[in-house]
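Suppose a colleague, Dr. K., hands you the sequence of a protein chain of 235 amino acids and asks what its three-dimensional shape might be. Before reaching for any lab equipment, you can write down a predicted structure in token form. Begin with the sequence itself:
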Amino acid sequence: QTMVLPTPAEHDGIPALQIASFVEPADEVGGDYYDVLYAQGRARIGIGDVTGHGVESGVLMLMVQSVARALHERGLDDPNVFLEVLNRAIYKNTERTQSGKHLSLAFLDYADDKVTISGQHEEFILIQQDGTVRRIDTIDLGFPIGLEEDISDFVATIDVPFKTGDMMVLYSDGVTEAESEAGDLYEMDRLINSALRHHEKSATEVVAAMISDLKAHIGTQKVHDDITLVILKHR
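The predicted structure, expressed as tokens, is then:
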């Protein structure tokens, strides 16, 4: 799984974006999906979360990674069609394996000072250069992947301006649902406040600082879910 994660060179290879990430599975095998797809000037960042974690979830994550890469390399630009085809392939595989697994999955396509978001996952957080916060709900932009064969009626997109100095925060629920030793969840308010404190730093520095804030909250409490945090900054 770690072998198929985006490399620093891939992060640095997208001219308009700074990208940094942190991925930590709860078990030896995780169920979080994250990838950076860049070909022929098209940048697409995906994030998802397979139900549960462990081997079956990890296998499904790798299926998604392979199918998404193939579709992107084929030049499938339309975000709606991209998700619909990916879902059909994953649905047929999950039927074969009878694992009962599915996943939340969203993609962010960047071009010309805007991002197009598609698919259903956690909220995306936009921190504008002046510190203004926008929470982008994805519940109406898709449907769990691998649950139904045809999700075309559920897939939609939203365009969001993304300008120089702006920052986007992508994460899995392992971040917001991380517990402290007292049993308190990290939740959105702490995540947003952490992003605001550090948003003027580089993407790499923001990830390091936000994970430090998260780990301080967790303390010695056992981590029960995979943790993924991705920071995108417009150069």
